[in-house]
Amino acid sequence: MAISRQGEKDTEESLDELTGLVEAVGAEVVGIAVQNRDRADSATYIGKGKAEEISLMKDELEATMVVVDDELSGSTIRNLSQATGLPVIDRTALILDIFATRSSSAIAKLQVELAQQQYRRSHLTGLGAMMSQQGGGIGTRGPGETQLESDRRHIDQRITELRRRLKRHQAVMETQRKRRTDTSEKIVALVGYTNAGKSSIMNYFLKHYDAEGAEVFERDMLFATLDVYVRRIELDANRKFLLIDTVGFVNRLPHQLVEAFQATLGEVARADLLIHVLDANQDKVELQQRATEAVLKEIGAEQIPMITVLNKWDLPGKYRLANSALPVSAKTGEGMDQLVQQIDRELFSDQQEVEMFFTFSQSGDMSRLLEEATILKQTYEDDGTRLRLMTDQFQRDKYREYIVEDHH
Known about the structure:
Blueprint: E1 2-4, H1 11-24, E2 34-36, H2 48-61, E3 66-68, H3 74-84, E4 88-90, H4 91-102, H5 106-122, H6 128-132, H7 152-181, E5 186-192, H8 198-208, E6 210-212, E7 229-236, E8 239-245, H9 255-260, H10 262-269, E9 273-279, H11 285-298, E10 306-311, E11 326-327, H12 336-348, E12 352-359, H13 363-372, E13 374-381, E14 384-391, H14 393-398, E15 403-406
Parallel strand pairs: 1-2, 3-4, 5-8, 5-9, 9-10, 10-11
Antiparallel strand pairs: 6-7, 7-8, 12-14, 12-15, 13-14
């Protein structure tokens, strides 16, 4: 169900997406209702007449729930439920429910529950009793569902505890990030709409280049994974980078989720390069592009250099974008060589050959450099070691005092 406001052009596309979200939790869409109006009705969202119409149709359609393509207040959900005679959930609750069913790691479970508790707190007035009477089903899954019957103080206590536990996880992630940023290792993050094929692209790199770590989970489903995967990719001895795959996006991703997943999405915000993966087989590709760009802006990652790719180019029904997106297929390998070339230009254009000299007393710094840079030649002399290396700008700045000759 949705309202189509004057001047809005994306109502149909958004409802198609909502249908996919409903199907993602194993439910079936038996009817779609759209009402043209300038703004939502303050009491029932769609107005009394439309609500009565749905109430009359529900038995014929065998409908058991109403899903609304907006976020509603607790009182509006209650009123609409009373008017239609059906349980009502909004778009935010539906997405939170999908995340609850998909979360598997400890940190993902905590992040999802935090978002759920924040949503429930904001909807406690007028909503708690109604939702607690629904029993199971869409919108009631996941950790902490009994909190629907708790008061605000109890929910606040749970939110405080979740934040405390997430802070511990975040501290571990920050330590891991610091280890990476202390070196010159480049970071590439895969971003994009859920089910666009980010994990498939990561697995292509794992199969075709020297890499550390197992392949990542991939399946043709929305939000197949909510976890962060980091793999080290070695194109050759001089070109190595960390490839990160993280949670997919969706149009109007609930703010509660963006806030709760800050520890996870922080991996994206710290990347040197983004690969924006779009599904070339979807006619809603431009809507999906805007959805991703909106989340990137919210997490402060919109200024990071980005390569846009149209994945699944091997499938029929391809849709081109007006901009210069690169068509690829992670399945067949089509266009992937061109993607690697673009990554090379973005990440490794600062590679230069330099010569450095380390005395024996400076062997500690030399050992650290040898872990980062590629040695081209090593010569032992009476008072130290002379190295010729392929370096990037980070390494040249860090070890500038040892440079004796620049071969660029």
